[in-house]
Design a protein that fits this description.
Elements lengths: L1 H25 L10 H10 L4 H4 L19 E2 L19 E4 L8 E3 L4 E4 L8 E6 L7 E7 L22 E3 L4 E4 L14 E7 L15 E2 L2 H4 L18
Antiparallel strand pairs: 1-2, 2-9, 3-8, 4-5, 4-7, 5-6, 6-9, 9-10
Length: 240
Amino acid sequence: MLKSRWMKLILLGGALAVLAGVLVWRYSGGGQSASRSNDLIREYLLFPERRPALSNQARSQCAGAPFILPSAGLIGLMYGDTAAPYTAARRHTGIDLFGDGRAGTVPVYAVFDGWLTRLPEWRSTVIIRHDDPLRPGRTIWTYYTHMASRDGSQSYVSDQFPRGTTERFVRQGELLGYQGEFAGGGAPIAMHLHFSITLSGADGQFLNEAVLENTLDPSPYFGLRLRLEDEPQPRPLTCA
């Protein structure tokens, strides 16, 4: 019996080591990262004691900016980032916030008042429609995803927003769910929230947020320099 328990512990330790290796490789671009963002992400993942000093706080707001930060953690991948798994030909369309804690425990909040939708097939995602506070009369959408367990079996979206929810009014700062690790069946990812601002199409519905041209630079909405720049910015980010 004791031997069997030791074998299980050894196998579990080996599995965790392999997963850690996969995550580090993923955020190192297999040694071919095109930006320096992954250096920060690797530091954050490998050295938990450094995380508080690298993290921005949830619901913080810069003077004059309409949005609050949707979650706590390291702002790792930036808007337009080319770091792995992205490239210069397929840039990151939002920002990634890497939280400190277990999956399903780091809260995610609405950045601004609006109307929330969760399509029936969305396990880990919600989207909120807003009247653009920087350009009144234009409709924009804020998109929040990865809010589920790694295998997708457990959603971390709040029970207040079941699948099929349409146009549910939410206020700035309302709890939407919790950061997770769901990648749609792809390679494992570290726990984080992906957030983006998406434009509307001619029909008034949100466009595909995976296409950079369909999204907006979130910097002026948060009062933070969130666009990828030539010189790396220290973390946590400070108000511009």
